[in-house]
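We treat protein structure as text, and this decision shapes the records that our systems exchange. Below, we set out a record of this kind in full and without editing:

***
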Amino acid sequence: MGFLYFLVIGAVAGWLAGQLTRGHGFGLLGDIVVGIIGALLGGFLFGLIGLRSFTLIGSLVTATVGAIVLLYVVRLLKTT
């Protein structure tokens, strides 16, 4: 059940990050990939400042923030 939970959070976080940065998502598979990588990145970044999430909303916020940072870095690298 934990793996399915991880995929759903990743898909929603990727979709939200796409909506906030581009105005649309990346398709289901793209949203899941962006969301999962964003969750890992967000967990690392939040851990650096001493924050942890234990709830569904906290996990979603962490993954979404990480996905937004990921998309921002990818855009920076793409334009150079």
The chain has one domain: 2-79. Residues 2-79 form one domain. The CA atoms of residues 11 and 32 lie 4 Å apart.
